[in-house]
Write a structure and sequence with these properties.
The protein is mostly helical. It contains 4 helices and no strands. The protein has one domain.
Length: about 100
Amino acid sequence: MSDAATVLMLVALQQFVLALSWLVCGRLLPTLWVTAAHWAAYGLLSAVGMLLYAAAATLPEPTRMAGNVVLVAAMLLMLRGLLLFVGRPTGDRLALAAWLG
């Protein structure tokens, strides 16, 4: 395993722990449950994306492309959670444009 793959796996572990932390936060602060759930999903998807990147060194090219798609989905969830937190419109049209673009 290369050094880069090891670092990606450690970042994935960190994102997974952060996802669990956001779930606990959402349970402790029910008014922030929806926002925390979005951020937890971001952490989980970013961890999966990093693991796909780490595996791309030994697996075929579609693995890296799948990692890209998962990371775009993660970023859109993070943005949506932020917009919900500050009380702004969620911009679902922007997310749709990102997927179609």
